[in-house]
Design goal:
By secondary structure, this protein is α+β, with helices and mostly antiparallel strands. It has helices at 2-28, 32-49, 57-62, 149-154, 160-163, 193-198, and strands at 53-55, 71-75, 80-86, 101-110, 115-119, 128-134, 139-143, 180-186, 202-210. Strands 1, 2, 3, 4, 5, 6, 7, 8 and 9 form a nine-stranded mixed β-sheet that branches.
Length: 211
């Protein structure tokens, strides 16, 4: 009888433990909709904290594809906000074309904590290069430099949010101060592989340069 009662108590104990673990996992789990809502709130908070003025694509194009002051143009369908800091002005400045190889230096910040996740602005040995492809229906980029930090961290696909500015800004081969520079807020769906999988937004500062 004693052994039987002990078995019953053991079964009850482990059942309670399993139930507690199950309830904890439910508390830890966030639905896809909840994750998207959290992402939107993080972006709104960042915009508010940095006193960013968001403008429409129509206004951006009316300003000759420039942003003024602390303006960011919002690309609604892509979940991307863009500020043009500097556009290359050298004699060879032009829009990117298919098969161009583009050098990109980046600062990547995790919006949830403001932690820097990547920074190659002053690390020449880890600069990423990608091959640019543009068709009538889409734009693509593939990282090609094996030493590049983004390629090693996230794979060969260039974040879609990084490619959007190339529709509006010119690049050049000039190094230094005339490199095209932008700031971006990028939601998960237009971000790098880990952001897409885990649903989080990032802030970027990028410079582009034709190879």
């Amino acid at each position: 009888m004693y052994i039987r009662n002990m078995k019953k108590l053991s079964i009850l104990f482990f059942s309670l433990v399993a139930f507690a673990l199950f309830m904890q996992s439910c508390d830890d789990y966030k639905s896809y909709a909840e994750q998207l809502k959290e992402e939107r709130n993080l972006i709104k908070r960042f915009i508010s904290q940095h006193e960013i003025e968001t403008i429409s694509l129509d206004q951006f194009e009316a300003q000759d594809s420039l942003t003024i002051g602390n303006q960011y143009v919002e690309f609604n369908n892509d979940g991307v906000y863009l500020q043009v800091v500097h556009e290359a002005e050298g004699p060879d400045a032009r829009f990117a074309e298919t098969n161009d190889v583009i050098l990109v230096r980046c600062l990547e910040v995790y919006l949830a904590s403001n932690d820097t996740m990547a920074n190659t602005m002053n690390r020449p040995n880890e600069i990423d290069e990608f091959r640019y492809t543009k068709t009538s229906s889409q734009i693509l980029g593939q990282f090609v430099e094996e030493k590049g930090l983004m390629l090693r961290a996230y794979g060969t696909s260039v974040p879609a949010g990084w490619l959007i500015p190339l529709n509006y800004i010119k690049l050049s081969t000039t190094n230094g101060a005339d490199r095209t520079k932008v700031k971006l807020i990028v939601s998960a769906k237009s971000g790098q592989a880990d952001a897409i999988q885990n649903i989080y937004p990032c802030y970027y500062e990028l410079t582009y340069q034709l190879y």
